[in-house]
Amino acid sequence: MAKFVKKPKATPAISTASLPDIVFMLLFFFMVTTVLRETTLKITNKVPRASQLQKLEKKSLVSFIYVGKPKETNVYGTEPRIQVNDVLIAPRDIPRFVFQEKDNLDEAERDKLTISLKVDVETKMGIVSDVKQQLREADALKINYSCVQAVSKD
Amino acid sequence: MARGKRGTPEVNASSMADIAFLLLIFFLVTTTIASDKGLTLRLPPKRPPDALDEVKLKDRNVFNVLVNSNNQLLVEEELMDVKRIKEEAKKFIMNNGRDEKSSESPDKAVISLKHDRGTKYEVYISVMDELKKAYNELRAEYMGITVAEYLDMENEEKKSKNPKLEEAKLKIPYQLSEAEPTNVGGN
To answer: Which whole-number Å values give the CA distances from B31 to A77, A120, B55, in the listed order?
Structure first.
């Protein structure tokens, strides 16, 4: 009984002390890059795909107009509606919205305002051309049809 | 005093990782990497009430594209698929007076797009995209680069002016005229 069988050494546990640091690093990355949606959408909004896209520079110069079918069809009906900020509006209210947005900008940058139209794929062009007409009335001529990048076939 | 010697007990930090993970997962889920891209367009200015008569263009210099409420395409009086419109548009723009019925030169060529109020937005965007693609390919060809390189260049343009790109834009200007939509399938 004098023999002592040497127990095989257990593998040392990996130190997890630095795990919180790593996770925090990732956390901060996502916290910085995240953009919480500033408007809650009351309409369905799935933008179409296109291939020849241009980036929108300078976030502060861009205002968004959303068009699509309302989510709460029992309240707002099934016809496509226009949403700006947090409210559904009629086409004739668009100039007022544009002037409001222009007021928020510096005087020198007022004519650089770009309107980004986020229109649902299922929408008919009728309401879109109404929006465009109203934007012309409000002298907001730079527009951008928001799209997602399509995978090109050729 | 015996009490003071004890020191503060260490805070157990083993659950820190769990908390951090929880927050991490929350931000992972809610994050949307901002990517605002789209087809840019400049609307024509508002017409003053005492506007002059519309500019008359030669018929041969206008490339007519009609989209009806059934999402069918009529290009130069010919029923066409969306995929073919790019080639036709390129042929029209770069005609340089060869064909009697086609454009005289790229800077005189105008594309007229007319849609119905009942046209689907998706179809309209795909037509716009194809027309833009036709121009982009021609400009890229003119500059001797690929379309992808051209698009990158166009996105960089706002930061630094590019004389080569300016020239290509001047030679092959993007002239799209949108007519007042018809109202057949709309409401």
So the answer is: 31, 21, 50
Of A131, A124, A67, the residue nearest B68 (C-alpha): A124
Maximum pairwise Cα distance, chain A: 101
> How big is chain A by its Cα radius of gyration, in Å?
26
Annotated domain spans of chain B: 59-178
Contact assessment for residue B179 and residue A133, using Cβ atoms and an 8 Å cutoff = no
Q: How far off is chain B from A43, nearest CA to CA, in Å?
A: 16
- In this structure, whether the domain defined by A49-149 belongs to CATH 3.20.20.120 is answered with no
Q: What's the rounded Cα separation, in Å, for the pair B58 and B149?
A: 34
Does A20 lie at the interface with B, CB-CB under 8 angstroms?
yes
For residue range B45-100, list pLDDT tens digits in order.
887 766 666 677 777 888 888 888 888 888 888 888 888 888 888 888 888 877 77
Which tokens in the block code for residue A28?
A: 């901060």
The helix (H) or strand (E) run that includes residue B67 is strand B62-67
Sheet of B73-75: strands edge to edge?
B78-80, B73-75, B62-67, B110-115, B176-178
ipTM comes to: 0.74
SS3 assignment for B93-132: HCCCCCCCCCCCCCCCCEEEEEEECCCEHHHHHHHHHHHH
Q: Which of A116, A86, A125 is nearest to A98 (CA)?
A: A116
Question: In chain A, where are the structural domains located?
Answer: 49-149
Side chain identity at residue A42, one-letter code: K
Mutate which of B25, B87, B125 to test chain A, going by most A C-beta atoms within 10 A? B125
- Among chain B residues, the shortest Cα distance to A67 is held by B121
Chain-chain contact of B37 with A56 (C-beta, under 8 angstroms): yes
C-alpha B161 chain-centroid distance:
20
DSSP string, A91-122: GGGHHHHHHHHHHTS-GGGGGG-EEEEEE-TT
Please state the pTM of the whole predicted model.
Answer: 0.76
Check if A1 contacts B (Cβ < 8 Å).
no
Question: Among A59, A126, A149, whose Cβ lies nearest the Cβ of B37?
Answer: A149
